[in-house]
Amino acid sequence: MPKYQKTFSLRAIVTLLLSALAIGLLFGDFFFGGKAAATPPNSNAPTTLATQLRTGSASKPTLAATTTTTDPGELPQTNQKPSLSSKSLALRMQELFTGIASDSITTALGSYLTLDSYRQIKGLSNNSFDYANRLLQHFALDVEAAHALFASQGRVSYVGFRADASYANWVLPNTCYNKLGYWHLPGVRLLYKVGGVTRSIGIISLISYRGEYYVVHFGAISRPSNIGYLDNPAIGVGSLGPPGGC
Predict the structure, then answer these.
(1) What is the pTM of this model?
(2) Which sign, positive or negative, has the C-alpha torsion 90, 220, 129, 80?
């Protein structure tokens, strides 16, 4: 797992937090209005490999953005298994790519689990602090690392993403420091082209909220210091998974 040796700058921290605040991610007081079932639906049976490809480029996304006034975290969690063919997931993956290519945390955050969703799921003493001071900082570092990779390769264009639906697992409530259950999908690959050659980088894990997948760990889950990580950049589509984890 290559490392990108760059500490998290004050400018990047300020940009990240202001961007998150601007899109309504930080420090809202919302209360959980429902209860997720402890047992996942029958759809947790392994399914066939699902590959989602969307053509486009960093400068001219082909998927139109949708407008929403409701943070999903304001609504109760469900145990609905997300679909890999979801148009909103395709849009989020393209927003991640575009954010990386343009070095825009604001854009990349469109793919990310919101604070209020995280607060609903997690069972930490201070979910908001953990989100802002660990998850978002790590995500920003990994986006910067991926941007540095793209910049070193030349002009990049978006291809799509690839994931194995059979690798998804239902994480039970009261495990992995969580209050609520969710679907976890590890080892997704973000695909792009450089000079007609397909390349890819990994996304460590997506988790679900209300039947939709969101990025939660990009380059690495844990790290010894504030440096950015890339998950197995490769020529070609790379390897999916491995399954497991939470």
Answers:
(1) 0.75
(2) positive
Distance, CA of 174 to CA of 11 (rounded, Å): 37
Provide the b/e sequence for 163-173 (b: ≥16 CB within 10 Å): bbbbbbbbbeb
pLDDT in tens, 83-135: 999 999 999 999 999 999 999 999 999 999 999 999 999 999 899 999 999 99
**Structural domain boundaries enclosing 98:** 3-25+50-59+75-235
Q: Is residue 220 assigned to a domain? A: yes
**Domain count within the chain:** 1
CA–CA dist 75, 210 (Å, integer)? 8
What are the residues whose beta carbons fall under 8 Å from the beta carbon of 86, sequence distance 6 or more? 212, 213
Q: Which helix (H) or strand (E) holds 215?
A: strand 212-217
Query: In terms of DSSP H, where are the helices of the chain?
Result: 10-22, 87-101, 105-108, 115-121, 127-130, 136-153
Tokens of 131: 């989100």
Q: Which sign, positive or negative, has the C-alpha torsion 65, 8, 20, 83? A: positive
How confident is the model over 142-156, as pLDDT tens digits? Answer: 999 999 999 999 999
Question: Residue 148 has which token pair?
Answer: 């540095």
81 token code pair: 């298994």
Separation CA 236–CA 246 (nearest Å): 27
Measured between alpha carbons, how far is 159 from 233 in angstroms, rounded to an integer? 15
In a domain, 39, yes or no: no
Q: What is the spatial distance between Cα 188 and Cα 209, in angstroms, rounded to a whole number?
A: 17
Is 200 inside a domain boundary?
Answer: yes
For tokens 């809202």, what's the residue? 28
